[in-house]
Write a structure and sequence with these properties.
Layout: H1 10-17, H2 21-28, H3 36-49, H4 55-61, E1 67-72, H5 78-93, E2 97-102, H6 107-114, E3 125-127, H7 134-138, E4 146-149, E5 159-163, H8 165-178, E6 184-187, H9 197-212, E7 221-222, H10 229-241, E8 248-251, H11 254-266, E9 276-280, E10 294-298, H12 300-316, E11 325-328, E12 330-333
Parallel strand pairs: 1-2, 1-3, 3-4, 4-5, 5-11, 6-7, 6-8, 8-9, 9-10
Antiparallel strand pairs: 10-12
């Protein structure tokens, strides 16, 4: 046998196993019409030589780059950073590399992602949009496979992965109601506008109040400019200084909730003594705050796995399947901020 190069090639495996390079390729690609004896011989050669499939070369021969794009609103929001890690892990397990972009929730940047600003490098896009509208989706370049995360604008024409936000908010509100809380403020909520995440979660809150016979008070729905720590602190301060006296806060992400916890502490309000606080997203910081934060925990790993799987299926068969809408799981994690 000829000496094997530092990086074994298919022809080296073929020579070692005593078969043709085509047979080795058939085994690597798991073709059915290969005898078990031949398959075992080729596998023995692969193991002995330490051969590894050149995924990049294979993808380029198929007209693909082996890269996918993940575009999220903000990487300094922990939920998106944690989600990005899961997406990268899932993609790596499938031999793909992830190009990561922050759109800052700017429509032009979301449109650029939707139309493939990395089309020459990327085979498809996983996009978490905040600023797109239904027309943007309807007029997108259909040649680029896209999976949306979060809320899909009405009439969307792409595969989609998210949680049931109405149900999740309803369950969080029911948890607060079960503790005797009746004046529950929604930090980051919305009662009007498009059916975005804020509106859907507010709808779930209202459903829970209605089922419990608790009157809805629009003054307790507190919109925010952004979903950062400081916005939660400002909202909690506003509630305290105006004497609205809620006995609980349902904050629509954990950053808002953690900012609110700090502001309540500075104003001498005890959590959970004077009021309860619940967040959304179960970011790592929520476990280490004082008090630790009760939160709605979306299954981020499931969201990432579903998004990557749907995208790769669409890349392999662009016209193959009907649009898919995957609803990932969630659960309420009860911690100290609601007496846990």
């Amino acid at each position: 046998m000829n000496s094997v190069a530092a990086r074994p090639r298919i022809k080296d495996v073929a020579e070692y196993a005593g078969v043709s390079p085509k047979t080795v390729s058939n085994v690597i690609n798991n073709f059915e019409h290969v005898s078990e004896r031949t398959r075992a011989a080729v596998q023995e050669a692969i193991d002995a030589l330490g051969y590894r499939v050149n995924i990049a070369g294979r993808q380029l021969r198929q007209g693909r780059t082996g890269m996918i794009t993940l575009a999220v609103p903000e990487l300094d929001v922990a939920y998106f950073a944690e989600l990005a890690k899961h997406v990268m892990d899932e993609a790596a397990a499938r031999g793909r590399t992830v190009l990561l972009h922050s759109t800052e929730a700017v429509r032009e940047r979301e449109l650029a992602a939707l139309h493939g600003f990395d089309a020459q490098f990327s085979d498809g896009v996983i996009l978490s949009p905040l600023a797109l509208n239904p027309r943007d989706l309807a007029t997108r370049d259909r040649r680029l496979p896209v999976v949306l995360l979060g809320e899909r604008p009405a009439g969307g024409s792409t595969d989609h992965v998210g949680i049931d936000n109405v149900r999740a908010a309803r369950e969080a509100t029911e948890h607060l109601l079960s503790r005797g809380r009746r004046r529950i403020a929604v930090v980051g909520g919305a009662v009007r506008g498009r059916q975005g995440t804020d509106r859907l979660r507010t709808d779930g809150y209202r459903e829970a109040l209605g089922a419990a016979g608790v009157p809805f008070d629009a003054d307790l729905v507190i919109p925010v400019g952004a979903y950062h720590w400081r916005d939660g602190a400002r909202a909690a301060t506003w509630l305290v200084e105006r004497g609205l006296c809620p006995d609980a806060l349902l904050c629509l992400n954990d950053h808002l909730a953690l900012g609110a916890l700090r502001a309540l502490h500075e104003h001498g309000r005890s959590v959970p003594g004077d009021l309860d606080v619940v967040g959304f997203d179960d970011i790592e910081a929520s476990r280490f705050s004082v008090p630790s934060l009760t939160t709605v925990a979306p299954d981020k790993r499931e969201i990432a796995r579903a998004a990557v799987s749907l995208l790769l299926e669409r890349i392999d068969a662009p016209d193959g399947a009907a649009l898919r809408d995957h609803v990932a799981g969630h659960r309420i994690i009860v911690r100290e901020s609601t007496g846990g």
